[in-house]
Amino acid sequence: MITVNEVMPMLAKACPSFKETYDGLIAFHGEPIPVLLMDDFADHVFYLYEDGDVDSLTEVFKVIEEIKSNGDEEAKELVMTCFFGEIDNLVAKRKLIR
After folding, report:
1. Of 42, 52, 41, the residue nearest 19 (C-alpha)
2. R_g of the chain, CA atoms, integer Å
């Protein structure tokens, strides 16, 4: 089973363009805080998509599928609530702006 503490390292590895932000957030907070990391990761993924950088997203969604299939309940909740919830919020904001 994939645990909640394994999720963000897996996603950071799948998305190298997030690595600097990931490392900076851990240094700033002194420890990895999965909910905060996931929020920033979802923003990063959203902007990659918005900028047309979809090639880098294939590995990200492979990892998300792996977590959904093999994660413990906390890991699944982190992905479903924090990742997809933040993506949903960003899409809603874009609709309001347009």
Report:
1. 41
2. 13
Residue 98: pLDDT above 80? no
Whether 49 contacts 57, CB under 8 Å: yes
Q: Are 10 and 63 in contact (CB under 8 A)?
A: yes
CA 87 distance to own-chain centroid: 9
The pair of structure tokens assigned to 16 is 């190298």
- The number of residues in the chain equals 98
Q: Using CA atoms, how far apart are residues 66 and 62, in angstroms rounded to an integer?
A: 6
pLDDT of residue 96: 63
CA angle 53, 45, 59 (to 5 degrees): 75
